[in-house]
Structures are given as structure tokens and as C-alpha cells.
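User: Hi! I'm working on a homework problem where we have to compare a predicted structure to a textbook description. Could you give me the structure for the chain below?
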Amino acid sequence: MVRVTDASGLRAALERSGGTVTDFLELLVGERIEAHGRHHATIGAPASSPLQVETGRPLLQRTATLRGRPSGRAYVYAASVIVTSRLPAWFAPRLESSSDPIGGMLRQAGLDITRRELAEADNPVAAQVAVAECLLARTYRIDAGPTPLMVITEWFLPTLRPFLSGAAGTVDGHGRPVADDDPGERDS
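Assistant: Happy to help. Predicted C-alpha cells:
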């Protein structure tokens, strides 16, 4: 079990975690995590990219909701841009056909990964996402050694609040505080 007191403690615990977000969530909420509502599209790499790829190179754009099983509760919404050519051949087809989260697949691939915090603007998919409210939002790049593999933006949803042992404030999808009685932005 993971002990987290509030949203700032959630960020700190995630930063200390040596594993994947999938592993962390499973410990925090006590149930298996699956990716649902997956949407995939191929995009061309922008001129300036933290993924260090040439302009126009095909990248996989993915959005998904990480949900608990069996509860079905949505805990995290994630938007990713992935350089699939830098991953094992089985990775991309499985992303599209299974409910396996990226973290579990990275673990299975046996890659020694690291995370590098980025600004939300470094993820071109994040600008297209409207999350009504969240406890925490963050963007980072996953590398295998010196090679960038993907950029992920995650929004940790208010459904995680019962798993925090202290009072947690809610923020909108851009990190701005939202009053508990303020519905904030709404997904469209």
C-alpha cells in the first residue's frame, strides 16, 4: 500500500516511485489498472519536439483513461505521443488491441526507463484535451537510456481523493485551484 496525504504528497510519491504509474496506482487503490476509452491516431512529429525526431516522422498519438478493475473507477486520464519505432515490434499493435496500460507494457519489455519532467506545452496532444478537474496534472518524457520514447501528460482525477489520507484540494486541468462546489470546466 502507498500512503499519500494530499495532492502535493501525490506528486512527491510519484516522483519517488521507481516503478511505473500503473504500478503506483495499483498499490494506491488496491486494484488492477486497465486502459479504457483508448483513441489512437498517427501524427507527424512537429518541428520542435522533446522526442528528438525529425519533423514529420510518424508518431502514435494516444489518449486513454486508466480505470480500476473490477470497480471501473476512472483514476487517471492520459495523453501520449509515442515513437513506436523505438519500441519492440509487438508494442504498437498491442497498445491498439489490448487494455494493457503503457506502464505494464514497458515493464514487460524489460526496458530500463527514466522520466524527465516537461511543461504541458511539450505534449501536442495535451492542448487538445479538456479535463474538468483533477488533483494533479503533470507532463514528462520517458527515456530508455539516452533515447526518448514518449511524452505523456497525466491528469490524476478526483476519484483518487478517497485513497488520500488527508484533505486534498482539486485543481482544473491546467493546475488552477477549483472550489469543491465549483464544477469547473466540463469535458466535451
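For your comparison, note the following. Residues 86 and 149 are 6 Å apart (CA to CA). Confidence is low (pLDDT under 50) at residues 167-188. Good luck with the assignment!
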